[in-house]
Design goal:
With about 250 residues, the chain is an alpha+beta fold. Helices cover about 20% and strands about 35% of the residues.
């Protein structure tokens, strides 16, 4: 591979033979854009994505842990305009397999704004194709932090969570269920759920209170699932987490 150094590892100030390169194709694209317009522009799809882990693949009924899972489409983005929704798994771009979230991000970033692309999406076991035109990656991202406050709620011992409707917890917004307290030894804590997070969906169902969460968990158990997928908003990031739901 021929590339340009983006960083060189040198604890002593001299070369130790370890460098981190930018691929030559990327350099060519950047140089070309700089010559033509004086700035580098990257294609923008407008989704928060995450890897498909083995647990997530199991929760979604996928045969392989591959593709990019859409955690949240951004309002007004090219993805949102064509109907991509949270929970979709992007499996191919222009009929070329998407290996993982990093692979999709790299391919989109290497594509010029205004380019028409075709995405292959898996939604609830059904394959769909969507044609869209990439936008221009915004220069700034706006983030909003969610903070939990004390509230009385029923505990969920299976997950190790105490929950309250988000609308009743200051700073949590109007949608979902706010995580008020987390048992540090519970399965939710082990999978990264924290106080202040907001659970938007459990098992593909929108939730608004602890009863909704219990109902979704019970349905998952009745269906014989070992894990259940929850969609969690934490600060500016929305992601999916696969939690074990073994019966007590």
């Amino acid at each position: 591979m021929i590339g340009v150094n983006t960083a060189i590892f040198s604890p002593s100030g001299g070369s130790v033979g370890i460098g981190f390169d930018i691929p030559a194709n990327t350099v060519k694209m950047v140089v070309s854009q700089l010559k033509e317009g004086g700035a580098v522009q990257h294609g923008w799809l407008g989704v928060q994505i995450q890897p498909v882990t083995a647990d997530i693949a199991d929760s979604l009924g996928l045969k392989k842990a591959e593709g990019a899972l859409v955690a949240e489409p951004q309002a007004g983005s090219p993805a949102a305009k064509v109907g991509i929704v949270a929970g979709d798994v992007i499996t191919a771009l222009n009929d070329v397999t998407v290996k993982d979230a990093h692979d999709l991000a790299r391919k989109i970033g290497m594509t010029a704004p205004g380019t028409s692309i075709k995405l292959t999406v898996l939604r609830k076991g059904e394959q769909k194709t969507m044609d869209l035109t990439l936008g221009n990656l915004p220069n700034e991202k706006q983030a909003k932090a969610d903070a939990g406050t004390d509230a009385s709620a029923s505990g969920l011992p299976r997950l190790g969570l105490t929950l309250a409707p988000a609308k009743d917890v200051a700073g949590s917004g109007d949608r979902g269920v706010a995580v008020v307290e987390v048992d540090p030894s519970g399965p939710a804590a082990e999978h990264g759920v924290k106080a202040g997070d907001v659970i938007l969906e459990v098992g593909g169902q929108a939730v608004g209170n602890a009863a909704d969460v219990r109902k979704a968990l019970a349905e998952g158990q009745s269906a014989g699932k070992k894990t259940i997928l929850i969609r969690v908003k934490s600060a500016e990031v929305t992601r999916f987490i696969a939690l074990p739901i073994a019966k007590a």
